[in-house]
Amino acid sequence: MPTASPLIDGFGRRISYLRISVTDRCDLRCRYCMSEAMTFLPRAQVLTLEEIAELSDAFIARGVRKIRLTGGEPLIRRGVPELARMIGRHIGHGLEELTLTTNGTQLAKQAAGLVAAGVRRVNVSLDTRDPDKFRHVTRWGDVAVVLDGIAAAKAAGLQVKINMVALAGFNDAEIEPMLRWCADDGHDLTLIETMPLGSIDEDRVDRYLPLDRVRADLARRYTLRDIDETSGGPARYTVVEELGVKLGLITPLTHNFCATCNRVRVTASGTLFMCLGHEDKVDLRTALRTGGREALDALLDRAMQMKPLAHAFAIGDRAAAPATVRHMSVTGG
């Protein structure tokens, strides 16, 4: 694919990673992510699969090398494997990797199709393997379905990374067992600090668990060897030597990664957010539908100058409003 001028923001950071939400809908209601009674986008406002593919083409032409499909839960939208094929045709021709983040509920049915489309790696959100706690945090989910999906993904040839949001008083005692399970099953594990996005039904201050504390606790029992490896995102990686497993830490609060940010996000309605922690945005859907590629490129240039230096995440003041009114599922997980 011919390459136009690269996407470089006002601070000299090159944008090479695009996260695209294919739907704001989800078949679970994780308590730290969504309220129980969500209002979702009317279907008419959601980009068609062909429009998502066209936006992907435009970003790849401007230097994006990695695309991640997200949601909501992306695999509940009909046709996502076909969308992956449309985008995946660029792998080796500008695009280096196409990945997907999922809650795992649909993986048993969709894993083979994803592999056929060119996807080689998926992130599965799994905060607990305890059936009762899983049902509580997701409000109605069945962890056995997710574990079956993970097994199917592995059998289909997908590399699986487990994403675990670290929650004080909920799953902090499960971090080491999850690490050992990942080591036994051949998965990587990434821990994520909870982020103040959208109004939810629980108190984030009570659930916030700083990952520097988790790392220090693990370091008392294991040898942790930091590595320079990157998956293109914000995680910092270390190898747990005794287990032979790679552990990632995503720390937007205790150790923010804004200085090297290479990411932007497109919502299911075609809104481009330059930062997860700010409300600044541009409407790519209208530009695409009314002005085509030329209008889209001009808007992307404008968006680069709007990208902020850093997010505004903070947890500690119970009376403080969330950093944004958007739930994580709206922007894309």
Global Rg: 19 Å
Order of neighbouring strands in the sheet with most strands: 7-8-9-6-5-4-3-2-1-10-11-12
CA-CA gap between termini: 28 Å
**Tally of extended strands?**
12
Strand content is: 15-25%
Residue ranges: pLDDT <50 for 5 or more in a row? 317-324
Give the overall shape, derived from the CA principal axes: globular
Written overview of the protein:
Helix content is 32%, strand content 18%. Strands 7-8-9-6-5-4-3-2-1-10-11-12 form a 12-stranded mixed sheet. It has helices at 49-61, 80-88, 107-117, 131-138, 143-156, 175-185, 204-207, 211-219, 284-306, 328-331, and strands at 17-21, 66-70, 97-102, 121-125, 159-166, 188-193, 224-227, 236-240, 245-250, 263-266, 271-273, 281-283. It is built from 10 helices and 12 strands. Helix 1 runs parallel beside helix 2 and helix 3 (107-117) packs parallel to helix 5 (143-156). It is globular, with a radius of gyration of 19 Å. The chain is of the alpha/beta class and 333 residues long.
Task: Write a short abstract of this structure.
With 333 residues, the protein is of the alpha/beta class. 32% of the residues lie in helices and 18% in strands.
